[in-house]
Amino acid sequence: MSNLTAKDLYGGMTALVTPMLMDGRVDYVRWQELIQWQIKAQIRAIIVAGTTGESALLSLDEFQQLLTIAVECCKTTNTRVIAQTGHINTDAVIQSNNLAGEVGADAVLIVTPYYIRTTQLGLEQHFSKIADTSPLPVILYNVPTRTQNDMLAKTTASLANHKMIIGIKEAAVDKNRILELVRLLPKEFAILSGNDDTFLLSMQQGANGVISVASNVRPYAINQIATFMALGDVISAKKLNTSLANLYKMLSYQPNPIPVKFLLHAAGLIDAGIRLPLLWLEAKLTGSKAELVKIMNEIKTK
């Protein structure tokens, strides 16, 4: 049974890519190396098989192996392991949650159902049934630009009453959503930003931290920004965050995780593997060469 609570959900967390070989097979050696780098950067948690990890393109066996390796790598560290277990149907989520519990994850992150559009009541009952049977603490995940199911703040507030639901990763584009959540949710409920480019604003509004894509390539910096914000040093946080503007821009050139995998490959950290229907990023789409060189020089050094 996991001892993770909402109080542990703060600071910088990384939605890790799933490294793949050129033929599309998962590269488990590189996976371990990426995890060790995140641990060294003192990232609070890594997310296994999230959106950035190409969750919808992984088999259940691959998910289990990725998670098993992550748990083994992190078991004597301060970095927690969170498994993304969201699926279209409720029973599949429950199955993945049970697997995550057996492997030894600290919590599960569950995206709202996608493709099948439902009501707020449907979302509430979906997550309630999942939480009723979950062996691990549940973190809700709202990303309506991908799922077309926007879980409103009032629905999240209702679900927050469940003892197994301890937080939410909020990635709605509505910049007032974090304020709504802060107003409606109990103080002990964790609110995590799911957008790199606005996470500093989200923390100013009351979010506890961020689940980041950018921290795949700049874990130290993302973690430091979150630390500055927790200490109330907004000036230092803004200065460091501004220095990442080119990175944030580059990560938006194509749908996630295409750009971040391109950057990690350019830095020699992973092979150029990705799965259809995703395609590899063309170099001509990455902006100026000077911007790319600057980002490359900063990876693994800052």
Automatic annotation (TrEMBL):
Q: Which SMART domains match?
A: DHDPS
GO cellular component assignments: cytosol
Q: Which CDD domains match?
A: DHDPS (cd00950)
GO molecular-function terms, A-Z: 4-hydroxy-tetrahydrodipicolinate synthase activity
Q: Which reaction does it catalyse?
A: L-aspartate 4-semialdehyde + pyruvate = (2S,4S)-4-hydroxy-2,3,4,5-tetrahydrodipicolinate + H2O + H(+)
UniProt keyword terms in alphabetical order: Amino-acid biosynthesis, Cytoplasm, Diaminopimelate biosynthesis, Lyase, Lysine biosynthesis, Schiff base
InterPro entries assigned: Aldolase_TIM, DapA, DapA-like, Schiff_base-form_aldolases_AS, Schiff_base-form_aldolases_CS
Tell me its EC number(s), please.
4.3.3.7
Pathway the protein contributes to: Amino-acid biosynthesis; L-lysine biosynthesis via DAP pathway; (S)-tetrahydrodipicolinate from L-aspartate: step 3/4
- GO biological process terms, semicolon-separated: diaminopimelate biosynthetic process; lysine biosynthetic process via diaminopimelate
- NCBIfam families the record matches: dapA (TIGR00674)
**What's this chain's function?**
Catalyzes the condensation of (S)-aspartate-beta-semialdehyde [(S)-ASA] and pyruvate to 4-hydroxy-tetrahydrodipicolinate (HTPA).
UniProt-recorded name of the protein: 4-hydroxy-tetrahydrodipicolinate synthase
